[in-house]
Amino acid sequence: MKIKQGYFTDSYFVKSRDALIACGKKPNVTMQVFAKQRAILCGVRETVRILKKCLGSKSKVIVKALRDGESIKPWETVMTLEGSYPEFAVYETIYLGILAHRTMVATNVHRAVKAAAGKPVLFFGARFEHYLMEEGDGYAALIAGAEGVSTDAGGAWLGKTGIGTIPHALIASFNGDTVAACEAFARRFKSKMIALVDFQNDCVRTSLEVARKMGKRLAGVRLDTAENLVDKSVRGGEQGVSRELVRNVRKALDKEGYRWVKIVISGGFNEEKLKAFVREKVPFDAVGIGSWFYHDRVDFTADIVRVNGQPCAKVGRKYRPNPRLKRVI
User: Three-class SS of residue 183?
Assistant: First the structure.
């Protein structure tokens, strides 16, 4: 197994393990893991699964940790590993990387969920990461409060499937005719749909055309106007999915009796823009976010803090017991 061999590990850990084994030294240590930022922890489940497989059933290494989804404070101990250091030395790079990445996603999704103030947040992050990351990232998003993910892979760890709207590509396949694309979708799939309505940069007109044709089959419309464009209905000049645009679409749908049709917004949304929309009571029903979830990394550090039962840590670090930790291995 490549992980166990140290293939994915910083080489100095592999060489340290080999040096200790060569001289017959097997210190019993306590390794302590923490982050310097306040965050929503994620990646523990994944870490435990890998460690169990690599360490094997005969291992005497004890691992304690917090649970995925728990809020953590700066410098709070989130995990400890206790045992013969050569036995788990090569896994430090692995578990720190897992915790850093998944916690980043979970923390940013949590911030968006909080900013949305009860409106559903949809995780559209799959296209901004390597496809092999989808399962864990989707899990992190759902743990942090996202209402849905865009791929089946993203929902797999929690038994969910991907959700989404009709894409621009399907509309383009019908020569830019959004209604025709919706009709084709409806013939193939019996579930209600959410139509993407910005293809012609005229969201009000397209929303009404789709609603008139699809009736109760239409669950919602998604506004995804490019950030460098001003929709035809917007008079104030605000680009992208603006407050005025959302209000215009809601007003037009309500005026013709399509009050059940929800409005999903996407395209360039972040925590601050969401807060502004909520503060100004913009009538959206859900928001899809992608690339913003991959900013503001959360870094984790691991230190040996005890050796053979005695305090031993680099200056500035010390053993910080955490009563919230539960044994996981």
Answer: helix
310 alpha-carbon distance from chain centroid = 39
Q: Which domains does the chain have, with CATH numbers?
A: 2-103+297-327 (3.20.140.10), 105-294 (3.20.20.70)
Q: Are 218 and 210 in contact (CB under 8 A)?
A: yes
The whole-angstrom separation of Cα 157 and Cα 139 is: 6
CB 74 within 8 A of CB 38: yes
pLDDT tens track of the chain, all 329 residues?
Answer: 799 888 999 999 999 999 999 999 999 999 999 999 999 999 999 999 999 999 999 999 999 999 999 999 999 999 999 999 999 999 999 999 999 999 999 999 999 999 999 999 999 999 999 999 999 999 999 999 999 999 999 999 999 999 988 899 999 999 999 999 999 999 999 889 999 999 999 999 999 999 999 999 999 999 999 999 999 999 988 999 999 999 999 999 999 999 999 999 999 999 999 999 999 999 999 999 999 999 988 999 999 999 999 999 999 999 999 999 999 99
Dist. CA 305–CA 34, nearest whole Å? 12
Phi/psi class of residue 266: alpha, beta or left (left: φ > 0; alpha: ψ in -120 to 50)?
Answer: beta
